[in-house]
Every structure is written in C-alpha cells, then in structure tokens.
C-alpha cells in the first residue's frame, strides 16, 4: 500500500493553511517600529518614515494612530490606507 499520495496531500494542505495564516500583514506598532518597518506601509517612503521616527523622538509616543497626521507629509488618506496595519500598543 502506497502512502505517498496521502502524505503529499497532507503536506500540501498544511502548507496552504499556514500560508494563509501568514498572508495577512502583521500589525505595526508606530511607537516602536524602525524606519525600515514604517517605510513598508502604503504611501510611506524612507523620508516619511524618518519623519515619523523624528516626531516620535521629539514628542513622545503616539496616543492613537490618528496622531500620525501630526507628522508633516502624512495625511488622513495615508492613515486610512494603513488603518488595519497600524497600532499603538
């Protein structure tokens, strides 16, 4: 009795299930994220990510994600596009 097809099917199913679990973008804590992590957000490049870190260092942690609008160059639309990925844990 060959068990290869059953084993291969189980491996395929496992890889699909775990792949879907990791397919969602992880939440980014804007109070602790580094420049590279912040630059991965939609509409945030290197210079805006650096501005976020500089603002955070000068003014302390963000109380809510909407406070990102206080950073020059970051608007409400950018915050809305990234709303599901932002957190201030």
Describe the protein:
GO terms for molecular function: DNA binding. This is Helix-hairpin-helix DNA-binding motif class 1 domain-containing protein. Keywords: Signal. Residues 36-55, 66-85 form the Helix-hairpin-helix DNA-binding motif class domain. By secondary structure, this protein is mainly α. The chain has a domain at 28-87: AF1531-like domain (DNA polymerase, domain 1), CATH 1.10.150.280. Helix content is 51%, strand content 4%. The chain contains 4 helices and 2 strands; from the N terminus they run H-E-H-H-H-E. The protein has helices spanning 4-23, 35-39, 46-59, 76-81; strands at 28-29, 86-87. A two-stranded parallel ribbon has the order 1-2. The longest helix has 20 residues, at 4-23. The relative contact order is 0.16. The mean pLDDT is 87.
What share of the residues lie within helices? 40-55%
- What is the β-strand count? 2
SSE order: HEHHHE
Distance between the termini: 54 Å
Class from helix and strand fractions: mainly alpha
Using the coordinates shown, work out and report the CATH topology of the domain at 28-87: DNA polymerase, domain 1
**What is the fourth-level CATH superfamily of the domain at 28-87?**
AF1531-like domain
What's the CATH first level of the domain at 28-87? Mainly Alpha
What does the largest sheet look like?
2 strands, parallel
Architecture per CATH nomenclature, i.e. the level-2 architecture of the domain at 28-87: Orthogonal Bundle
């Amino acid at each position: 009795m060959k068990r290869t097809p059953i084993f291969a099917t189980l491996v395929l199913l496992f890889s699909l299930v775990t792949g879907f679990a990791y397919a969602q973008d992880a939440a980014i804590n804007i109070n602790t994220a580094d420049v590279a992590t912040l630059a991965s957000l939609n509409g945030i490049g290197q210079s805006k990510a650096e501005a976020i870190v500089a603002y955070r260092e000068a003014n302390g942690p963000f109380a809510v994600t909407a406070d990102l609008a206080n950073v020059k160059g970051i608007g409400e639309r950018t915050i809305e596009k990234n709303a599901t990925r932002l957190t201030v844990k």
